Amino acid sequence: MAEWLRRRSKLVVLLGLLKDQTAAGLARASGPFSYLQIAMVMATNHSESLPLEKYVEEIIASGSGSRMQVSFCTRFLVKRLNRTRSWAVAIKCLIILHRCHLDGGFLFQDLLAYNSTKEGKGYLSFPNFKSDPSSVDWPFFFWVKRYARYLDERLCCCRALKSHLDSRWKSHSFQNTVEITDSRELLHQLDVLQSLLHELCQCKPSAEAEEHPVIQGALVLVVMDSYKVHDEIRVRLKEMLARVKNLELSECFSLLHNCKRALSQMQTLQKFLESCKELSLFLDIPFPEEDTPSELDIQTLTESIQSMSKQHTVSSYMIRSESSVHVPFRKDGLLPRSTSLFASQPRQLHRKSSYAPEDAQGVYSGDDFIDISHELKPSTVGRGHVHRATMPDLISF
């Protein structure tokens, strides 16, 4: 069995080398961007090692060129990702796309965001990338799928935030933008960021895959993103907790859900960083801050929701009681002083008969109200057959 696996691995290496040489030969005769195509082919070859940095830097440097160059790079990498059946080629394409989105400049960020919007959420899904769960490479295939889902969610999150998650930006640089953002928009951004953090924590590799150098190289980028994502969530939660007195009841319920979810995700993120620390990927992996939200913040928010719920119940009962009051009309088109009106109702009704002044004492007899006890026939109205005693009492609106 071991001999068969050894022969199979040699055959896979030879086929991968043949494919790389063929792709490089075709790239040399491709057209005006042949040097970029050669760099991308060499950076995403079939060898199970990290892409050479000189090729990655050449691809990233194209971000300072024309938009046509950047569009060519993104289309080529995504096309190669969707066509390959090798996990090594797939993870290298994803690493380069991740690096381009971080360091490639505005053109790479804008084109990747636009293409993900155009293609939908499965922009980096690569449907042809399949493997048998019983194969030797299954742990690597599985982790690459997780990594692709995280990058896809990352593009969707950047589109919702209308900014790009860059760990080199400090919290005070975007805190002013958060302060002037609407509360509903902040709640939507919190939902998107917490979904991204959930996908990030799912990128924990298995015991078989965590020792591979290519997966460790991709894991370094994921760990760097975790601090930025957590910082974005912390700043928005802090701002929303400061606005509790001005929030509606439904917004307070959403904020309470986000706070409880943030506490549970904080524990999951710590476990993820501890597992990465055991791999010695960094000299030191500091744990993120835990100041927001605290248990005291959640308790205060819960008490605010309870008080707002009681006020909402009392006010709704008062509105129902006021709407059920019968408001009588007088003959002169006025209402008694004891009757309260809403602002939208008219104070006086127009009529054809002469105006009768309002009683100074505010006391009215039963004769002041309209007598509608007399039965009228529709056939007699307007033909002079109406009873004379009721004619002056008719009001035309």
TrEMBL record:
Q: Sorted alphabetically, which Gene3D superfamilies does this protein's record hold?
A: 1.25.40.90, ANTH domain (1.20.58.150)
**Which subcellular locations apply to this protein?**
Cytoplasmic vesicle, Clathrin-coated vesicle; Golgi apparatus; Membrane, Clathrin-coated pit
Look up keyword Transcription and say if it applies: no
Q: Does the keyword Plastid apply?
A: no
Gene Ontology molecular-function annotations: 1-phosphatidylinositol binding; clathrin heavy chain binding; phosphatidylinositol-4,5-bisphosphate binding; SNARE binding
Q: Which residues form the ENTH domain?
A: 28-165
SUPFAM superfamilies per UniProt: ENTH/VHS domain, GAT-like domain
Q: Which residues form the signal peptide?
A: 1-24
What is the predominant subcellular site recorded for this chain?
cytoplasm
Task: Please report the name of this protein according to its UniProt entry.
Answer: ENTH domain-containing protein
**Gene of this entry:** LOC112291576
